[in-house]
Design goal:
511 residues; alpha/beta; 13% strand
Length: 511
């Protein structure tokens, strides 16, 4: 050992690690049980956490197959004569994903949904020679961050938007999006193609049992997270990503692709057909440096999809749809609760505004319920929009309340030129002043959108989420309502001379 460590100065060497006394097997198992007891486990039926990882029923057939040593001890299948079982399992996964997404070809799997989305962006960059990737709508924020990191090394600009230009390599959208809302996938695909860019659909595999698959609306690449296909949440991993594409993009696929071959006797076998990484081809021709796949997780997904079949997957999607909508209806009846996007359609996950989500989540946890995901921390950039949107509603409420106040004054004070008694006049003035303050503050709230607070969840199966779009039109709408309310107050309040001057100020155009 001294000769081995000869280049390390003696002052830097550690002579004694000072480790604690080793534990026996019995003591180790007891310590592990104590650690496991500290975990909080929630019943399946009381788990409402959304945001990309879901707790679904997993048939025992999945564990029965993936638990075979032939699969979980297998190494890279470079030697087909010794890896036919592993290669066939990968081939079946590719076939099932290609059928599910209605695409021509799928690869052997990737690490997770985030890296699959990033690899698809790299494919578009290599295929088009353009260096801009647009992320449309509410794509998973972690996917967006991974795409940005991948893009930095190649000089690719990853930004949010849905208006592609001649510099755009691809438009990436999620269906359903991170908030669970359905998007216009066909329209986004057409917009990308009109600009000469690729359309990349990030899809939920379970949703494809009832929604149109990417191949049907012309997407060039389909990616997604396969955790729902027979894999437990497992504290965030390992999961499995999938990527499929049209035939002309096959040679741009990252990772590996398993195909079939026939020997001299005509017997079918499986081989590693394509591996587009630096180790196998010239570096400048390489699409990616991804050299492996999640074979065991892909096997679990294959067993799950085969076991469930098309009708079973559709039943799962249908039950999730009906239960999520039932839950959304019931929760909307609670005081202070409401759908964040009441006019948008959703599948099995929906965004909902809730009062004080932090304390609420803690109360639910104490009751053994895993509540929805607080997405304010993930979509922090949406908070100003949410606040302004809510305050716009508040402005309208203020304007309406002001109208009620002055209408009450007008009903109580008769139309006359004779002097009004002092008590009635003071009452009228006070009510009119309140109306003026309500309407004016309402308009200011809409104009500034600078105060207030709110919280929301994304509810999976129902998942809770938070965000708002279309804010400028909402502001203009509510600002217009407040202005009209002010104008309507003038003739009503002309019945009370003490109120006319103050309400007239509210009828001035808003800035």
């Amino acid at each position: 050992m001294d000769a081995l460590l000869g280049d390390i100065p003696p002052s830097l060497r550690i002579h004694d690690l000072k480790l604690a006394r080793g534990l026996s097997e019995f003591e180790t198992m007891a310590a592990v049980r104590d650690l496991a007891a500290a975990n909080r486990v929630f019943a399946d039926r009381l788990t409402f956490r959304g945001g990309g990882v879901y707790k679904r029923f997993i048939p025992t057939a999945v564990a029965a197959v993936t638990g075979k040593p032939e699969f979980y001890t297998a190494y890279t299948p470079y030697q087909p004569e010794a890896s036919q079982g592993t290669l066939q399992a990968i081939y079946e996964f590719q076939t099932l994903i290609a059928e599910l997404t209605a695409m021509d070809v799928a690869n052997a799997s990737l690490y997770d949904g985030a890296t699959a989305a990033a690899e698809a962006a790299m494919m578009a960059y290599v295929h088009t020679g353009r260096n801009e990737v647009l992320v449309a709508g509410y794509v998973h924020p972690e996917y967006f961050q991974v795409m940005k990191v991948f893009g930095e090394g190649r000089g690719i600009k990853v930004r949010k938007g849905d208006q592609p230009t001649k510099k755009t390599a691809a438009v990436i959208f999620q269906q359903p999006d991170f908030l669970g809302l359905l998007v216009d996938a066909r329209g986004l695909t057409q917009a990308a193609h009109d600009a000469g860019a690729l359309a990349i659909a990030c899809v939920d595999p379970i949703s494809l049992a009832i929604l149109a698959p990417p191949g049907e609306y012309g997407a060039d690449i389909a990616v997604g997270e396969g955790q729902q296909l027979g894999l437990a949440p497992s504290y965030g991993g390992p999961h499995v990503g999938f990527i499929a594409c049209q035939k002309e993009l096959t040679r741009k696929l990252p990772g590996r692709l398993v195909g079939t071959a026939y020997d001299a006797q005509g017997r079918r076998g499986f081989v590693l057909s394509l591996a587009a990484r630096e180790q196998h081809i010239r570096r400048e021709k390489a699409t990616s440096n991804i050299c492996t796949n999640h074979s065991l997780c892909a096997l679990a997904a294959s067993v799950y999809m085969t076991y469930m079949g098309p009708y079973g997957l559709r039943q799962i999607a249908d039950v999730s749809f009906r239960r999520a909508h039932h839950l959304a209806e019931r929760l909307s009846l609670l005081p202070g609760w409401g759908m964040a996007f009441p006019d948008r359609q959703f599948l099995n996950e929906f965004p909902m505004i809730v009062p004080k989500p932090g304390p609420l989540m803690r109360r639910l946890a104490r009751k053994g319920i895993l509540g929805g995901l607080e997405v304010g921390r993930l979509h922090a950039q949406q908070r100003p929009a949410v606040q302004a949107h809510l305050l716009a509603h508040l402005a309208t409420a203020m304007a309406i309340l002001g109208t009620v106040c002055v209408t009450a004054v007008a009903a109580a004070v008769p139309r006359t030129t004779a002097p009004v008694d002092r008590v009635s006049m003071r009452w009228a003035q006070a009510a009119a002043a309140s109306a003026f303050i309500l309407v004016l503050s309402g308009s200011l709230v809409v104009a500034t959108g600078a105060s207030g607070a709110c919280g929301a969840w994304p509810l999976c199966g129902g998942g809770f989420s938070l965000s708002f779009d279309g804010l400028p039109s909402v502001q203009l709408l509510h600002r217009g309502i407040a202005g009209v309310m002010g104008l309507l107050l003038l003739p009503v309040c002309s019945r009370c001379s003490g109120a006319t001057a103050m309400i007239a100020l509210c009828a001035r155009p808003w800035p």
